[in-house]
Specification:
With about 170 residues, this protein is α/β, with parallel strands linked by helices. The protein has helices at about 10-15, 30-45, 70-80, 95-100, 105-115, 150-174, and strands at about 20-25, 50-60, 100-105, 125. Residues about 1-5 have low confidence and may be disordered.
């Protein structure tokens, strides 16, 4: 399925009255990129691509302009997710204005977001796995330095959290 708004920035999403979700990890090539790809797929499958905008960023500039890690892409493709079109970008102060919900993949990302956010925008921040309490985890582990199986485990958590957030946002949109 095509995601019609994949190339729009969050400012464009706001002009289209879309609910904008941002996923945040360290370099934006593993966890947050995978979350964007999975969530984008789920949003499209739910016929909500015209109402929910999705993006992802890294807290650091390690991989700006690079595609997602090939192991993340491989794990995603094995489950029907395609997100090779994504390119890493770094968190920008405008993101705190443009997005309705900013989801941290790890508590260190959350702490960094709290320190950097503009006054009044901290209410937009949440932990990604808050929507997957059944996981018993707070953080999505970083698979970057692990083996390929680590990407499968990360994808399991991302699918669970994405389902939870989609259900919560869908209820808010009604």
């Amino acid at each position: 399925l095509q995601y019609p708004f994949a190339c729009l920035c969050a400012t464009s999403y706001r002009r289209l009255s879309m609910y904008c979700v941002l996923f945040v990890c360290t370099g934006n090539i593993c966890r947050s990129a995978t979350a964007e790809g999975v969530f984008r797929h789920m949003v499209t499958e739910a016929d909500l691509a015209h109402r929910i905008g999705v993006d992802s960023v890294g807290t650091h500039d390690f991989h700006v302009g690079e595609p997602p890690d090939h192991r993340a892409l491989q794990a995603g493709r094995a489950r029907g997710y395609e997100f090779g079109d994504l390119r890493a970008r770094q968190l920008d102060m405008q993101d705190f204005i443009d997005f309705h919900l900013i989801l941290a993949m790890h508590r260190e990302h959350y702490r960094l977001l709290l320190r950097r956010c503009l006054p009044g925008t901290e209410k937009k921040l949440a932990m990604f796995l808050d929507a997957a309490p059944e996981s018993g985890l707070m953080d999505v582990p970083d698979p970057y330095h692990g083996e390929s199986g680590t990407f499968e485990q990360t994808l399991d958590l991302i699918e669970s959290g994405s389902r939870g957030w989609l259900n919560a946002i869908r209820a808010d949109l009604r």
